[in-house]
């Protein structure tokens, strides 16, 4: 989340960049999908549906996707909101090759506009949120974040339907 806050700091004027965690969703069951599903699920899906794109920063837990994050994705699988959604990854550690592989597999299944080649990586482990914030404000790191965001928004605009 500290990394995503750093990204929000370099967002250009006019970009509405919202920070979210997948907290507060019930455990996924196909028997509870509705329609409608629980209010928290409907609200989450509506936010995903309204976004022009999603930047995901996801930690690795025990060599895998954290259950809470996979649970959030599972709620979206049989709905329309994430289909074709532009998605790019930010990584907060040099470790986590397993979660990166799993993210590529799962997100690539959910959206044909998941773009793994756009990802950016920072080495932020064991830093406090304040230290991360200071690190990301260094000109070299601001530049990486700005380039990441500009590449992502540029590709969204050239490959698709923003605001429609
Ligand atoms: C339950 C748990 C399991 C973790 N397993 C891994 C792991 O397998 N590989 C890894 O690189 N980091 C692992 N980590 C570290 C996290 O990915 C993350 O880097 C760390 O929690 C720091 O982020 P935080 O400050 O947001 O907690 C684990 C952390 C927790 C809490």
Description:
Helix content is 45%, strand content 6%. With 164 residues, the chain is mainly alpha-helical. It has a single domain, classed as Flavodoxin domain (Rossmann fold, 3-Layer(aba) Sandwich), CATH 3.40.50.360. It has a three-stranded parallel beta sheet. The radius of gyration is 16 Å and the shape is globular. The mean pLDDT is 95. Flavin mononucleotide binds next to loops.
Give a summary of the structure in a few sentences.
The chain is mainly α and 164 residues long.
Q: Top keywords for this entry?
A:
single chain, 164 residues, mainly alpha, Rossmann fold, 3-stranded parallel sheet, 6 helices, binds flavin mononucleotide
Task: List the topology elements.
Blueprint: H1 2-9, H2 39-50, E1 54-56, H3 67-76, E2 87-91, H4 97-110, E3 120-121, H5 129-137, H6 139-158
Parallel strand pairs: 1-2, 2-3
CATH architecture: 3-Layer(aba) Sandwich
Sheet with the most strands? 3 strands, parallel
What is the count of helical runs? Answer: 6
- The CATH topology comes to Rossmann fold
Query: What does the average pLDDT come to?
Result: 95
Give the CA-CA distance, first to last residue.
Answer: 29 Å
How many separate domains?
Answer: 1
Q: Helix share of residues?
A: 40-55%
Q: Please identify the top-level CATH class.
A: Alpha Beta
Strand residues, percent: 5-15%
Which structural class best describes the helix and strand composition? mainly alpha
Radius of gyration from the CA trace?
16 Å
């Amino acid at each position: 989340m500290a990394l995503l806050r750093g990204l929000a700091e370099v967002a250009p004027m006019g970009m509405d960049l919202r920070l979210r965690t997948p907290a507060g969703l019930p455990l996924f069951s196909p028997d509870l999908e509705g329609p409608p599903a629980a209010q928290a699920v409907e609200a989450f899906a509506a936010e995903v549906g309204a976004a022009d794109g999603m930047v995901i920063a996801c930690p690795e837990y025990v060599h895998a996707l954290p259950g809470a994050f996979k649970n959030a994705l599972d709620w979206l699988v049989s709905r329309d909101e994430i289909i074709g959604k532009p998605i790019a990854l930010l990584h907060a550690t040099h470790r986590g090759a397993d979660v990166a592989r799993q993210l590529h597999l799962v997100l690539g299944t959910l959206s044909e506009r998941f773009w793994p080649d756009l990802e950016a990586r920072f080495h932020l482990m064991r830093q406090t949120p304040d230290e991360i914030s200071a690190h990301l404000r260094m000109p070299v790191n601001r530049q990486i974040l700005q380039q990441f965001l500009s590449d992502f928004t540029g590709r969204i605009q050239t490959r698709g339907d923003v605001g429609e």
